[in-house]
Amino acid sequence: MTTHPTYDQLLELPAYVEQPVPMPFEDINGHLNVRHYIGIASEGLDESLVEVGIPQMWPLTDGHACFTAEHHVTYFHELRTGDTMSARVILLGRSERAAHVLIYLLDETHQRVACVVEEIFLHIDLETRRTAPWPEDVAAKLDARIAEHRALPLPITTSGSMALR
Asked: Given Cys at both, which of 62, 138, 156, 164 links 53, Cβ 3.0 to 4.6 Å?
């Protein structure tokens, strides 16, 4: 049996992109369309990365970017129009040029975990448009955040389908 953190456990983490599910994000099934789960998770990750020295305007200000290499999404409960949602981020690890993260989308209205998005993202030098080592200051802040998250008393479960190289 796979164990994921509970809604209450994830409340200990900062909330990002808190908002209601807007009507235009609804699909024919009456719930949040699949493409928006990844988009909202991505926005939550972007907001969280500001705290480790990666501003949202990084491509314009420094010529660096983060590109996604892989995603794996596990759905637990649907989010419906009007439900309030938020993202909670756990940094799992990093390599010289990549990072591994879990982004949990919470259904704040029904107090449950809606889904988890597992992601590998890469540091990109936009001049060459190739992967590059993390800048030293960002690497240090990523390492500190990873250590913080490893110390949390949360059950961490990954898909097993991706890993840092």
From this structure: 138
Going from N- to C-terminal start, the domains of the chain cover 7-150
Q: Which long-range contacts (CB under 8 A, 24 or more apart) does 137-143 make?
A: 137/53, 138/52, 138/53, 138/54, 139/94, 141/51, 141/52, 141/53, 142/52, 142/91, 142/94, 142/99, 143/94
Strand partners, 96: none
Looking at residue 72, its pLDDT comes to 97
β pairing state of 16-20 and 84-94: antiparallel
Task: List per-block mean pLDDT (blocks of 10 residues) for the chain, which spans 165 residues.
Answer: 89 97 92 93 98 96 96 96 97 98 98 98 97 98 98 94 93
